[in-house]
Specification:
binds zinc ion; single chain; queuosine biosynthesis; metal-binding; TGT-like_sf; 2 domains; 3-stranded antiparallel β-sheet; transferase; 15 helices; zinc; alpha/beta; TIM Barrel
């Protein structure tokens, strides 16, 4: 166990990298996928089961937790790790993005954002200083800078103004974070799809200095082609010897494309949320368990998968419990999707380490093009 936060690269293959982030709460193997535990739970999963899929780190949402049950209450109860029974690393977002997407009646000033809770309409304020305080009360291992992320499309002036505000907030976040050995503060690059604004943002962040750097402002509706277009240059604008985190991504092919462009960490609600709506990810793409073709099918979702849904249950059973709205349906499909995502990351880490990531990507795309197994 280390007392410090550190990152090391073990191998690169093209622009793809594999390595490890060490924290006092454990190692995060990279590239890493972080399941989202919005309200101090990865929905439908026990934390030990999330761990069993291979997850090294979870993401918690500052916005949700500050409103309910509140950061102060979680602090009194021993911090988020103890509260939710997850003793490994936790990354928390800053709350900024979700204020923009969920809260009502927002008012944005140089100081911060005031808004009304989407739960009970109560009034709250988030500033860089308050966001740092909340993330400290939660006990987060990796803290994100408070930033503003405009929805795309937005005009260049709006994106530039927002990015520069976020850079001033990044400096305030750094100052408010203080000296906390073993904990990390990540800066967030903004600048929309613009090369020069991304470069200006990266330069501002480097000057402040962070333990890691996120590519922010993507996965907000711009589409995969535009996102990859930005990652083609944005990751190289960030320091090579620090972890790079792409926020809120994504579908399996988004993740593979991001890793190919030098990303080390990602998070997304997709595998868990999809599990609750009957959408299943496999090597052969996506399937909908609700579809009648699965009704009499005794085969597993994916015979190569080691999760309980695939080892112990048929497509017919999973179809039945989904249609019957049984709770076990969400549990099993979420477990499978999280297992698929973690297996995907493990496969990429091994391929990068062995210098065969290009071949691995070809196999990944070929298996998806085959599509789901033929109906019985
Ligand atoms: Zn499975």
């Amino acid at each position: 166990m280390t007392e410090r936060f550190s990152f090391r690269l073990d191998a690169t293959d093209g622009r793809a990298r594999t390595g490890a982030i060490d924290t006092p709460r454990g190692r995060i193997r990279t590239p890493a996928f972080m399941p989202v535990g919005t309200a101090a739970t990865v929905k439908a999963m026990l934390p030990e089961n999330v761990r069993a899929t291979g997850a090294d780190v979870l993401l918690g949402n500052t916005y949700h937790l500050m409103l309910r049950p509140t950061a102060e209450r979680i602090d009194r109860l021993g911090g988020l790790h103890r509260f939710m029974n997850w003793d490994r690393p936790i990354l928390t977002d800053s709350g900024g993005f979700q204020v923009m997407s969920l809260a009502g009646l927002r008012r944005l000033t140089e100081e911060g954002v005031t808004f009304k809770s989407h739960i009970d309409g109560s009034k709250h304020e988030l500033t860089p200083e308050r966001s740092m305080e909340i993330q400290r009360l939660l006990g987060s291992d990796i803290v994100m800078c408070f930033d503003e992320c405009p929805a795309l499309p937005a005009d260049r002036d709006r994106i530039a103004r927002s990015m520069r505000l976020s850079m001033r907030w990044a400096a305030r976040s750094r100052a408010a974070f203080g000296d906390r050995p073993g904990h990390a503060l990540f800066g967030i690059q903004q600048g929309g799809l613009e090369h020069d604004l991304r470069a200006e943002s990266a330069e501002a962040l480097r000057e402040i200095g962070f333990e890691g750097y996120a590519v922010g402002g993507l996965a907000v509706g711009e589409g995969q082609e535009a996102m990859f277009g930005v990652l083609d240059f944005a990751t190289d604008q960030l320091p090579e010897n620090k972890p790079r985190y792409l926020m809120g991504v994504g579908k399996p092919d988004d993740i593979v494309g991001a890793v190919a462009r030098g990303i080390d960490m990602m998070d997304c609600v997709l595998p868990s949320r999809s599990g609750r709506t009957g959408q299943v990810f496999t090597r052969h793409g996506q399937l909908n368990i609700k579809n009648a073709r699965h009704m009499d099918d005794p085969r597993p979702l994916d015979e190569a998968c080691s999760c309980p849904a695939c080892r112990n249950y048929s497509r017919a059973y999973l179809h039945h419990v989904f249609r019957s709205q049984e709770i076990i349906s969400s549990m099993l499909l979420t477990w499978h999707n999280l297992q698929f995502y973690q297996d995907l990351m493990a496969g990429m880490r091994a391929a990068i380490a062995e210098g065969r990531f290009a071949a691995w990507q070809s196999e990944f795309h070929a298996a998806r093009e085959q599509g789901d197994i033929d109906p019985m």
